[in-house]
Every structure is written in structure tokens, then in C-alpha cells.
């Protein structure tokens, strides 16, 4: 026997849950008790929510354009929700670029302090790339400040890319261990020869004067960011 009540579309169930999450997490963020790692994951989630909300707006009357609309979208999602989500993501991006790791430790692609750390830079760059894509969408009438946001975010993204490349150049040259000689406990100092260094040899993680470890999660964030940003530099 069929259920007499019409089932709510799965897409709208998901977006309704995202709206509830946005209401909770944005309120929590504006209370001011979070660190930059909070921003990174929030941006990646809610930039996608902002994009998804663009598919449920009222269809245009133009015969050449159509927009998907769910049956109860007008009652479920307030008109200003998408704009508020966008502003939230922009605020989160500024939280990243003004954080300690980005504002004080990172400058012109170099680190001031001897305890080198690329984790927050690589992960933050991944989120910032989503923020850059958000402000270049140019879909709303109130986007007068988007060009300014774009310039700020892109400048910091370029600094972060330079820094990640520089951090890999601090690694000592890769020297395969011979079976006839034990591995030296003191690695060779960094040199100008970068032919044997790059992704896979370290530079993405925590370290001292250079980062020996190559964390898979941090590598994934770095590559994800570069993939998103590549079209902007092509």
C-alpha cells in the first residue's frame, strides 16, 4: 500500500539539514571561541552549500534558461539565506588569512621562525581556494566588494603557494641508502639543487628548520588547492 503522504525529495532533506547546520555553526563561530582549523572545514562545507542553494531559486521566465526548483523551497529557505552563507564563508576566509600562521609566520613565501609548520598553510590554502571561487561567481547584485575580496584572497594564496614550494626546497637532497653503508644519522644540509626534492620527499607536515615528514592528508589538501587554483593562473 502506498504512503498517502508525498515523500520529501532527498535533495531538499539534505539542504534542510545543511540549513540547520549553518544556523548552529555560524552562531557558534560569531561567539568567537574557535581556532583557524574550524574555519578550514566550515568554508569547504558551506561554500558547497552556497552553490547548492543556487539550484533551488525560483526559475527565471526566460525561455532559454532554466533553474531547478524544489516544491517547497520558498518556504524552507529564507530569501537571504544564500547571501548570509556567502558572507559567513567570506568572514571565515578572512579569519584564515589574519590567523597567526598566515599573518605573522608567513610573509612573502617565507617563514620567520625555525619551527617550520606547513600543515595550517596547506589546509588553509585548500579552503581559501573555495573562498576565491565563491567571490568570483558574480551571481548577486550586491557583489560590489567581491573584487576587493578576490584581490586579498588571491594575494595570500600566492604567498601560501610560494611558501609550500620554498619549504620543499629546504629539504636536504635525497640520497638513496646503500646496502653496504649504514644510513647517516645527520642528513645533508639544504642545497640549491632542487632536482631530487618535491612532493613525496617531505615538506608537508611539522618539523624544525625543515619538514622531513610527508603527511598524506596535508599533501591531499595542497594538491586539492592547486587543482582549484590552477584555472586562475592558466
Helix-strand layout with pairing:
Layout: H1 10-30, H2 36-53, H3 73-76, H4 81-97, H5 100-105, E1 106-107, E2 110-111, H6 119-135, H7 146-169, H8 216-233
Antiparallel strand pairs: 1-2
Task: Describe this protein's structure.
The protein has about 230 residues and is mainly alpha-helical. The chain is built from eight helices and two strands, in the order αααααββααα. A two-stranded antiparallel ribbon has the order 1-2. β1 (about 105) and β2 (about 110) form a beta hairpin. It is elongated and about 65 Å long. The termini are far apart.
- Share of residues in helices: 40-55%
Distance between the amino and carboxyl termini: 57 Å
Overall shape: it is elongated
Say how many strands there are: 2
- What percentage of amino acids are in beta strands? under 5%
Q: What composes the largest sheet?
A: 2 strands, antiparallel
Strand order of the largest sheet: 1-2
Instruction: State the secondary-structure class.
Output: mainly alpha
- Discrete helix count: 8
* Topology pattern, helix = H, strand = E: HHHHHEEHHH
Q: Rg to the nearest angstrom?
A: 22 Å
Q: On the 0-100 scale, what is the average pLDDT? A: 74
- Poorly predicted regions are 58-74, 175-187
